[in-house]
Design goal:
The protein is α/β, with parallel strands linked by helices. The protein has helices spanning about 1-5, 20-25, 35-45, 65-75, 95-100, 125-140, 145-150; strands at about 10-15, 50-55, 80-85, 105-110, 110-115. The protein has a domain at about 1-90 and about 125-150: 2-Layer Sandwich (Transcription Regulator spoIIAA), CATH 3.30.750. A hairpin with a 2-residue loop joins β4 (about 105-110) and β5.
Length: about 160
Amino acid sequence: MLLLRESGCFGVLLGFESICPATLQRIDKGFNKVSRYRENLERFHANRQAVLGSFVFGFDEDEPSVFEYYAGLHRSGENRLAALCPLDAFPGTRLFTRLEREGASSTTMGLLYFPTRGFSPARMSARQLQEGFCGFGARLLPGAYYKRMFDIRSTPSAGAEC
């Protein structure tokens, strides 16, 4: 981390992806240790590095309660900046092949891929996924989030809220 700072780097993107160890194993990211997410964020922040934490919603292991866990990371200020994505199945991936086999439709538009999101994870409905994702975004974006976004080198306060 010292080399990052000395090189002039002031932030990193970390692909956390999920809070579920089983999901991480299944998507070949078993090296991500959920139990160390908060510790790792603290290490970067102590080194005055901004972290853009990337999370994906909609894996089969996700339940509706998954959104509250993510919201807690943001309310606490531990993950100050977020890239939040609904699960997308890109052509040529195992997920795309599986969803095609299951009859979920999709379209490709230029270089960008837009799924119809007509599928749902095993443990929540498509509606719960959409409402959870949209509701999470609405809770995340107001007030303190913007302050943290534009003041990436600040230290989070103990009771910071989104």
